[in-house]
User: Fold this.
Amino acid sequence: MSSAQTVPAVANGFTDLQPRHIAVHPLTGHIGAEIEAPDLSRPLAPEVVDEIRSALLKWKVVFFRNQPLSHAEHVALASVFGAPTIGHPVFGFVEGHPQVYSIARDRFTARHTGEPLIRPWTGWHTDVTAAVNPPAASILRGVVIPPYGGDTFWTNLAVAYAVLSPTLRSFVDTLRGIHAFSPPEGQSATDAFREKNRRRPLVSEHPLVRVIPETGERVLFVSPSFLKSITGLSPRESQQILELLFEHITRPEFTVRFRWREGSIAFWDNRATAHLAPRDIYALDFDRQLYRITLKGDVPVGVDGRPSTSIEGEPLDAFTAGTA
Ligand code: SIN
Assistant:
């Protein structure tokens, strides 16, 4: 029997704090839990914060219902769990709220027209992996939600790593890859910010397998939308191995699909997941508006202890007044 059949339902290697102040309802065997928590617009007790963190490490993405937050409350909540970055390093932020990025239905319309080839992994990504220190986590809140359609998917990259054959695991442990992002024209939420940033590509080299510091978990850190090539391989070798890995990480059993409602919040570990924004909304007339805050991340470190390196662009810093 291959190791694929023997991996535990959730990844191991971390302290499983038994929640006493929140209720955690797992949604699948491998990823995703809905959390019943106190009102997130109010200051949270340290025990609640610890329990949410623990659930996040275990389930990789956690969801809250009926938590309608203002932009300011969203920023306050995110700041409890880390340091918010600028809304988006290229596309900007919501006017007056520099840490908040608007996820509007038509923000990428231009990208979705005339796309030549859609593959199972098309659109899957981990946020901003072209930066040398991709966000540690993202917190997305739903404000205008279509009556149907518009669901988001996440996949667990720790389980995806764990179920590879030992031989392939040992091989990918040694690999590094180039993640790149070149800003398209005219898609910033904030004109002045766009003007300043639009010509700035971001390029970084990351290990294909990164180690999560708190748990020692190994994660298959491949982000289909941004990972362009594997260092040291020929273009054909690189493309075919990437396709194998991209297809692998999007296997349905590693994923969870979330049906949004107004006031829903999704909070994901951006080091250990990739996600897929919906495409079906482009076939529907309904509006969809969400807002995202990302938390500053560390520079990833591979199993050999080597950190990622920046090739172009600046690290993603915590937002401070004067950044934007
Ligand atoms: C994102 O990619 O962060 C947004 C996901 C979504 O629109 O559902």
In short: The two ends are 54 Å apart (CA to CA).
